[in-house]
Every structure is written in C-alpha cells, then in structure tokens.
Amino acid sequence: MRISARAEYAVRAATELAAASPESATRTTEAIAQAQEIPRKFLEGILLSLREAQLVTAQRGIGGGYRLLRPADQITVADVVRAVDGPLVFVRGERPSDLRYDGSAEPLLGVWVALRARVREVLEGVTLADLARGDLPGPIAAINEDPAVWANPE
C-alpha cells in the first residue's frame, strides 16, 4: 500500500487546522502551505477536495481562510485520506470486496480484505485531534513500540 503525496499533504494540512487555537481557527492557504512546506497550488486543490467532502469550510474576506467543519476529535485520518484519494485499499483499481479469484488464488481475496481491515483499524483509530496533540492512541502507540515495525525487510 502506498500513501500518495496528496493524501500525506492533506493529513498534514488538516492537522495544521486542528492545531490552530480557537481564537485563530481560520488559517489561510498561505499560512498552511508555509507551516507544512506544501506547494501552495497543490494545497489549493487539496483544500477544495476537503471542502467538497465537508471536512473543512472556507471563509472569505479579512480574517478569512479555512477551518475544520467538525471538531478535530471527530475527523479521522481515514476521513481525510478518503476525501482526497477515495477508498483506502484498492487492488487493480477495485475494492477488495468486489474481486473474485478462482482455483489456487482463491484465498488471496482474504489477504486483501484483511489488509483493508487493518488499514481501516489504524487510519480510523487516529483523529486529527490526536495528531495535533502529538499523542497517538494506545493501540497505535503500542504498535510503534515494537522495533521490528521500524525495520525495512532486506
């Protein structure tokens, strides 16, 4: 599974909005781009997708910019990734549940479905509020404590 640059930038931008103090919850595109080192034009497209997904709203005029539409503890990383990239796990452009295999490859479907379940478990288990606080939920933090997850197989 690969996380696209668009998805990674979207999560970073949304986390930047989540981290904004209540008094200055609206952030300009320029401020977000600068804080997260995201190309501004690329960010504009991302914010449009997040707006279409009803995760952020825009305010025009003086003091305008973007802010989260819901509280940060009600928006998961999965919500943001889906908003910009669609479903979390695809196999050849299809959802695992739409695939069919025959013969010796039949058990492969279970692999793809299990992968999707684990990806959902992680990405739906972390909110923007968690990221903004710098505090991963217990089950996710526990995974990261295992040194083996940090190693790349040879």
From TrEMBL:
InterPro entries for this protein: Tscrpt_reg_Rrf2 (IPR000944), WH-like_DNA-bd_sf (IPR036388), WH_DNA-bd_sf (IPR036390)
A molecular function (GO) term: DNA-binding transcription factor activity
Organism whose genome encodes this protein: Demequina activiva
Designated name of the protein: HTH-type transcriptional regulator
Any one GO cellular component localisation term in the record: cytosol
Taxonomic path: Bacteria, Bacillati, Actinomycetota, Actinomycetes, Micrococcales
PANTHER family linked: HTH-TYPE TRANSCRIPTIONAL REGULATOR ISCR (PTHR33221:SF5), WINGED HELIX-TURN-HELIX TRANSCRIPTIONAL REGULATOR, RRF2 FAMILY (PTHR33221)
Residues making up the signal peptide according to the UniProt record: none
Keywords in alphabetical order: DNA-binding
